[in-house]
Write a sequence for this structure.
C-alpha cells in the first residue's frame, strides 16, 4: 500500500515529462511536493495550480540543477516552509548527443554538470535535514543507457552510470541514519520529446522491447512513489530497471 500523507518531497526538473508525472503522482498519494525547473515557468506554475485545485500542496522554484549553492537554497526554503524533507527525487536531465570524435568539451561538461553534479548538489544539501529526522528516501533517475552504454551518448551514459556509483556510496554512508538511496533506470518512455518521433522510428524501437511498446511517464512515477513510501523501507542501494524488458 503506497501512502505518502505527511511526507515532504522535492523533485528536480518537475515541469515536464517524467518529472511532471512524478510530481503529480506523489501529490495524488498525499505528499506535499516542491519541484524545480530550468526555463519553463508557465508549465511549472500551471502544475502548482493543478495540484492545489486537487486539494494538494505544491511549490516551485526556477533553479539550475547544476548550481551547487542554489540546491542548498531550495532545500532550506522547502524545510523552512514545511518543516522537513522526507523524499528527494533527482530527475533533471538533458542530452547533448554526438559521436565521441565530434563531441565538444562543452557537450561533455554541460551533460555531466546537469545530470551528475546535480545529484551531488541536491543529495548533499538533503543529507542534513534527513539526518536530523533520521528518515529519508533519495531516488535518482538514471537510464538503461547508464547500464549498457549507447553509441552517440558517451556523455549521457557516463553521467547516468556515475549516478549509480554515487547512489550506492550514499546508501552505504547514510543507511545507519535510516536514509535510503536507490536508482530507477527507465528504458524508452513516451514523453513530449519522444512523441515527436515518426511512426517508423517508434516501430523500430518497439521491436527491441519485449513488452512491445514504450513505457509511459506514469509507469516510472508509480515506481518512484513506491520507493518514496515506507512500503519500500528495507530497499536501499538498488538499481531498478523499468524498461519493458528492453535491457534484460
Ligand atoms: P524532459 O526533457 O521531458 O524534461 C526534463 C525536465 O528537467 C524539465 O522539467 C526541465 O525543465 C528540467 N531540466 C532540464 N535541465 C535542467 C536544469 N539544468 N536544471 C533544472 N531542471 C532542468 O525529460 P524526460 O522527462 O524525458 O527525462 C527526465 C529524466 O528521465 C532525465 O533525467 C532523463 O535522463 C531520464 N530518462 C528519460 C527517458 C525517456 O525515455 N524519456 C529514458 C531514461 C531516462 P524545463 O522545462 O525548464 O526545461
Amino acid at each position: 500500500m503506497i501512502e505518502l500523507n505527511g511526507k515532504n518531497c522535492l523533485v528536480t526538473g518537475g515541469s515536464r515529462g517524467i518529472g511532471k508525472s512524478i510530481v503529480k503522482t506523489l501529490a495524488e498519494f498525499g505528499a506535499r511536493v516542491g519541484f524545480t525547473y530550468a526555463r519553463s515557468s508557465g508549465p511549472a506554475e500551471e502544475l502548482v495550480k493543478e495540484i492545489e485545485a486537487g486539494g494538494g500542496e505544491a511549490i516551485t522554484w526556477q533553479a539550475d540543477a547544476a548550481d551547487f549553492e542554489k540546491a542548498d537554497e531550495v532545500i532550506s526554503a522547502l524545510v523552512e516552509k514545511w518543516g522537513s524533507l522526507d523524499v528527494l527525487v533527482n530527475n533533471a536531465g538533458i542530452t547533448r548527443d554526438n559521436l565521441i570524435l565530434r563531441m565538444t568539451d562543452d557537450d561533455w561538461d554541460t551533460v555531466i554538470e546537469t545530470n551528475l553534479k546535480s545529484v551531488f548538489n541536491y543529495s548533499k544539501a538533503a543529507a542534513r535535514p534527513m539526518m536530523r529526522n533520521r528518515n529519508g528516501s533519495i531516488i535518482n533517475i538514471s537510464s538503461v543507457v547508464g547500464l549498457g552504454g549507447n553509441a552517440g551518448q558517451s556523455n549521457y551514459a557516463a553521467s547516468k552510470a556515475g549516478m549509480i556509483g554515487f547512489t550506492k556510496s550514499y546508501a552505504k554512508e547514510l543507511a545507519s541514519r535510516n536514509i535510503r538511496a536507490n536508482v530507477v533506470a527507465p528504458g524508452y518512455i513516451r514523453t513530449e520529446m519522444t512523441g515527436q518521433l515518426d511512426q517508423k522510428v517508434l516501430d523500430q524501437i518497439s521491436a527491441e522491447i519485449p513488452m512491445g511498446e514504450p513505457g509511459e511517464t506514469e509507469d516510472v512515477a508509480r515506481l518512484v512513489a513506491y520507493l518514496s513510501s515506507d512500503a519500500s523501507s528495507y530497499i536501499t542501494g538498488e538499481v531498478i530497471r523499468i524498461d519493458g524488458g528492453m535491457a534484460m
Q: What stands out?
A: The mean pLDDT is 96. The first helix runs from residue 17 to 28. Residues 12-19, 36-40, 64-66, 91-94, 114, 141, 143, 186, 188-189, 191-194 surround NDP (CB under 6 Å). The first strand starts at residue 8 and ends at 11.
